[in-house]
Design brief:
CATH architecture: 3-Layer(aba) Sandwich
Strand content: 15-25%
Number of domains: 1
Strand order of the largest sheet: 2-1-3-4
Radius of gyration: 14 Å
CATH class: Alpha Beta
Order of helices and strands: EHEHHHHEEH
Structural class: alpha+beta
Number of helices: 6
Length: about 120
């Protein structure tokens, strides 16, 4: 089963995880969130694999979030629509292996996930 990595090329943590996987000979497929944004259904599926709510998936330190969404009370579906329109607000990297996913931070978590 190929490991999938939801990645943003502008994210240093995301780049570090790809480097770590390369250095350890782990085969993986990159899904660039900026070039190939997730659909609402894909985000819902991802949330199930992560066993988390949509609020856990949002990068709350991102300037776009702080300027436009901080303090807003949106439904889960409304937040998912925000993430579909603004993939840069999705936490990354995210590693997916079959029916399980995890946030690739800190990098120590990645070691456990790939073993």
């Amino acid at each position: 089963m190929v490991l999938k990595v939801l990645h943003n090329g502008n994210c240093s943590k995301s780049k570090a995880v790809l480097e770590y996987l390369d250095e350890n000979g782990v085969a993986f497929e990159i899904i660039d969130l900026m070039e190939d944004p997730l659909s609402a259904l894909e985000i819902k599926t991802l949330l199930k694999k992560l066993s988390q709510s949509v609020h856990d998936l949002i990068r709350k330190t991102d300037r776009l979030y702080l300027e436009n969404y901080a303090g807003k009370e949106l439904s889960e579906d409304e937040w998912i629509d925000v993430l579909v329109e603004n993939p840069s607000l999705i936490q990354r990297p995210i590693l997916i292996k079959g029916s399980v996913a995890m946030l690739g931070r800190p990098i120590e978590n990645v070691k456990f996930f790939i073993e």
